[in-house]
């Protein structure tokens, strides 16, 4: 599919009519969790039928690059932890394959037609992760080798999937057992090439699979042995490419190519930095091999590069802060005072950086950020948000900074007793910043401090929470109270709830309580109440709890966020709560965009219908894709403001008749696209639109067939 032409933000007249009709009956869906952004791709391939790069992100999301930009596809997320998953294209069956596994079950195979993923029926190889995989185009087979089995055992098994079932092969010779190796299919020679893998003590051997047996080849030169490297085949140069990985000496930035006889190193500059776990895939639209993401000594990489056989070129990509805090507590999120989204302060960078995320894109904030630190505290506010203290290179800090949406201002350099991980919030009713507790130099504290905009003052209420370090403290705008939950002292996690009314602390005794500890709390403007995110143990799913002033109620739980260091951001952000971890941003909102299939297709040959991205406000590139339609023909796209169930020539029309019909031309691959840009106006939030595709089919009873219905919900 070719990239879309430049599109107007004005809805086509027929679709504008549908929106106007559906505005009469807006319903608010239940609050959901939706991924907005993540860093890096552990798997990618090119789909030549649709002309798109297809990638799986670290949060299990599906992304596509259409030659102009990356789009987050409206697909259910796969279970996280996908370093062991690989994407491949099956040219015989014209579909993208995702081969994934972990220790929880056998290897799974899923196929994707551009509209939805479907699990391939059949039991795969035994549970494992970090295997090597390639698709043998000559024989129409997927080849899988090795991996790590349960109990830290490495495998030397060779498995084949022939399009219908898995089979274990028993070749005469086989490479030694390994994990985190890489493979690429050499289209010119009809061989699958294997190199590297753990353990690092293995020799730097090159192996080739000819469809029957493994052959160890002896090139005159070869890279040093490594694991976590990337490999791909360049059909223009007829070379297998290898980049990066981890050797015995650490991360590598080496690029090698293999012609079937020898490996040749290319030492050009500039080139990507040292990294492993990146992905290489040849892009025929570009005529070059793309390198995506990866992880290096300083964390994750968001930039993209391409290799044309002579030089590396860093591709233009949307700005991104990369991994947050480089695995430490140095990354702090706070609400943008102007309500645009969240602000990220990363105190681990040299120098520290500040970024704005508006719900779709990242942009760097120019100017000086507060000095480097970890364990700082932050609070959301309007017209200013605040950051306080933490641990700097010289020890504990007591400086207070404010952010007005464009620049940081140093408000104070001293005041409260030095501590880190202090409870902090902005009391909007009284115009004060409230601090409580924190970990001091010798003990955790139980002090209450107030910043009135000019000076700090310590309060001495008769009743107050016990000493603790705690970030789960936020202002309840609905009740004009500061709420503190849990935290930790030297004996473990706490589960008590306290409220500050500007004068004294009062303990609340709810019937239910979240897990001990608590990792952050924010005010949800949509819910008109507080939301806490917490986890019982490191690595466990994050739970979200709402507090109404009387009791805690678990909601949107469990949240599948693989990293336990999470932070919620709420008011003045208007669309619910944003939840961040080290590599991703999620939205918990009552107005979440959705694209949901419903009903049944008329026949097995019916086309597929899907959305190209989430239908969010201001999504100028949003549109509908039709796949598996008759080639070089016409299809009808039906649209309405309501669903229906009407018998029509042996099929069922799933959208209300008589509202909108668009005729679309299909490509030689049977693909069509209709652009439906979404306005930025908030009245469109929650609007439902219904679509169905119809195509001529001489084998169908009525001479035509119809797809499943697609309900599109406009959200944020």
Give a verbal description of the structure:
The protein starts with 12 loop residues before the first helix and ends with a strand. It is globular and about 80 Å long. The chain contains 1 helix and 66 strands. A hairpin with a 4-residue loop joins strand 51 and strand 52 (552-559). The strands form 18 sheets. Strands 56, 59, 62, 64, 65 and 66 form a 6-stranded antiparallel beta sheet that branches. A 4-stranded antiparallel beta sheet has the order 1-55-54-53, with no helix packed on it. It is mainly β and 716 residues long.
Number of helices: 1
Indicate the radius of gyration in whole angstroms: 28 Å
Report the portion of residues in β strands.
35-45%
Q: Structural class of the secondary structure composition?
A: mainly beta
Q: Which consecutive residue ranges, at least 5 long each, have pLDDT under 50?
A: 1-30
End-to-end separation in angstroms reads 27 Å
- Percent of residues in helices: under 10%
Largest sheet: 6 strands, antiparallel
Shape: globular
Q: Compute the average pLDDT.
A: 89
Count all strands and give the number.
Answer: 66
Helix and strand arrangement:
Blueprint: H1 13-22, E1 32-38, E2 43-47, E3 52-56, E4 62-65, E5 70-72, E6 86-90, E7 95-102, E8 105-112, E9 117-119, E10 128-129, E11 132-136, E12 141-145, E13 148-149, E14 153-154, E15 158-161, E16 166-169, E17 182-186, E18 191-195, E19 206-209, E20 214-217, E21 230-234, E22 239-243, E23 246-247, E24 250-251, E25 255-258, E26 263-266, E27 279-283, E28 288-292, E29 295-296, E30 299-300, E31 304-307, E32 312-315, E33 331-335, E34 342-346, E35 353-357, E36 362-364, E37 377-379, E38 385-392, E39 395-403, E40 408-412, E41 423-427, E42 432-436, E43 448-451, E44 456-459, E45 473-476, E46 481-489, E47 492-500, E48 505-508, E49 520-524, E50 529-534, E51 542-547, E52 552-559, E53 567-569, E54 577-580, E55 584-589, E56 594-598, E57 608-611, E58 623-627, E59 634-640, E60 643-648, E61 651-655, E62 660-665, E63 672-675, E64 688-696, E65 704-706, E66 709-713
Antiparallel strand pairs: 1-55, 2-3, 3-4, 4-5, 6-7, 7-8, 8-9, 10-13, 11-12, 12-15, 13-14, 15-16, 17-18, 18-19, 19-20, 21-22, 22-25, 23-24, 25-26, 27-28, 28-31, 29-30, 31-32, 33-34, 34-35, 35-36, 37-38, 38-39, 39-40, 41-42, 42-43, 43-44, 45-46, 46-47, 47-48, 49-50, 50-51, 51-52, 53-54, 54-55, ...
């Amino acid at each position: 599919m070719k990239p879309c032409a430049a599109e107007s933000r004005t809805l086509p007249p027929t679709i504008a009519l549908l929106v106007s009709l559906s505005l009469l009956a807006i319903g608010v869906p239940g609050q959901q969790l939706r991924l907005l952004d993540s860093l890096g791709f552990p798997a990618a391939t090119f789909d030549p039928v649709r002309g798109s790069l297809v990638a799986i992100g670290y949060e299990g999301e599906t992304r596509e690059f259409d030659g102009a930009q990356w789009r987050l596809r409206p697909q259910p997320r796969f279970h996280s932890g996908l370093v062991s998953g690989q994407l491949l294209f099956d040219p015989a069956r014209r579909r993208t394959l995702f081969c994934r596994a972990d220790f929880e079950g056998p290897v799974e195979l899923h196929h994707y037609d551009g509209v939805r993923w479907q699990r391939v029926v059949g039991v795969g190889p035994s549970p494992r992760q970090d295997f090597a995989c390639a698709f043998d185009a000559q024989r129409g087979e997927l080849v899988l080798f090795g991996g790590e089995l349960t109990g830290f055992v490495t495998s030397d098994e060779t498995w084949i999937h022939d399009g219908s079932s898995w089979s274990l092969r028993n070749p005469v010779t086989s490479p030694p057992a390994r994990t985190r190796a890489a493979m690429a299919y050499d289209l010119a020679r009809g061989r699958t090439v294997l190199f590297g893998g753990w353990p690092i003590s293995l020799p730097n051997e090159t192996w080739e699979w000819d469809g029957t047996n493994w052959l160890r080849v002896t090139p005159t030169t070869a890279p040093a042995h490594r694991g976590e490297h990337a490999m791909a085949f360049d059909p223009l140069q007829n070379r297998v490419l290898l980049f990066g990985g981890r050797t015995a000496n650490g991360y590598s930035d080496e690029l090698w190519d293999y012609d079937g006889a020898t490996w040749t190193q290319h030492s050009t500059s500039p080139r990507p930095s040292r990294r492993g776990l990146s992905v290489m895939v040849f892009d025929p639209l570009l005529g070059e091999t793309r390198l995506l993401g990866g992880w290096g000594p300083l964390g994750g990489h968001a930039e993209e590069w391409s290799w044309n056989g002579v030089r590396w070129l860093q591709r233009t990509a949307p700005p991104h802060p990369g991994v947050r805090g480089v695995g430490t507590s140095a990354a702090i999120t706070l609400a943008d005072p102007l309500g645009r989204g969240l602000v990220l302060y990363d105190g681990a960078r040299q120098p520290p950086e500040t970024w704005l995320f508006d719900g779709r894109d990242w942009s760097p904030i120019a100017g000086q950020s507060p000095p480097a630190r970890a364990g700082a505290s932050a609070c959301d506010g309007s017209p200013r948000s605040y950051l306080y203290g933490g641990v700097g290179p010289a020890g504990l800090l007591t400086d207070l900074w404010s952010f007005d949406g464009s620049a940081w201002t140093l408000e104070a350099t001293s005041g409260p007793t030095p501590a880190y991980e202090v409870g902090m919030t902005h009391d909007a009713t009284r115009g004060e910043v409230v601090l409580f507790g924190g970990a001091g130099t010798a003990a955790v504290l139980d002090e209450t401090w107030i910043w009135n905009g000019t000076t700090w003052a310590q309060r001495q209420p008769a009743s107050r929470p016990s000493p603790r370090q705690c970030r789960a403290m936020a202002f309840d705008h609905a009740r004009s109270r500061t709420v503190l939950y849990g935290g930790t002292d030297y004996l473990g996690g706490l589960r008590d709830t306290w409220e500050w009314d500007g004068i004294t602390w009062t303990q609340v005794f709810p019937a239910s309580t979240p897990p001990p500890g608590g990792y952050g709390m924010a005010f949800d403007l949509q819910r008109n109440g507080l939301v806490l995110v917490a986890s019982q143990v490191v690595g466990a799913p994050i739970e979200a709890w709402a507090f109404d002033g009387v009791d805690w109620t678990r909601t949107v739980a469990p949240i599948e966020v693989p990293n336990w260091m999470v932070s919620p951001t709420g008011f003045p952000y208007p669309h619910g709560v944003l939840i961040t971890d080290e590599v991703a941003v999620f939205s918990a909102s009552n107005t979440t965009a959705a694209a949901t299939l419903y009903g049944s297709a008329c026949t097995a040959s019916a086309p597929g219908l899907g959305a190209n991205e989430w239908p969010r406000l201001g999504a100028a590139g949003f549109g509908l894709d039709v796949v598996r339609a008759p080639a070089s023909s016409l299809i009808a796209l039906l649209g309405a403001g309501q669903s229906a169930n009407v018998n029509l020539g042996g099929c069922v029309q799933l959208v209300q008749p008589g509202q909108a019909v668009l005729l679309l031309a299909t490509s030689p691959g049977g693909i069509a696209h209709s652009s439906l840009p979404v306005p930025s106006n908030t009245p469109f939030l929650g609007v439902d639109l219904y679509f169905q595709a119809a195509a001529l089919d001489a084998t169908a009873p009525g001479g035509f067939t119809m797809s499943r219905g697609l309900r599109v919900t406009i959200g944020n």
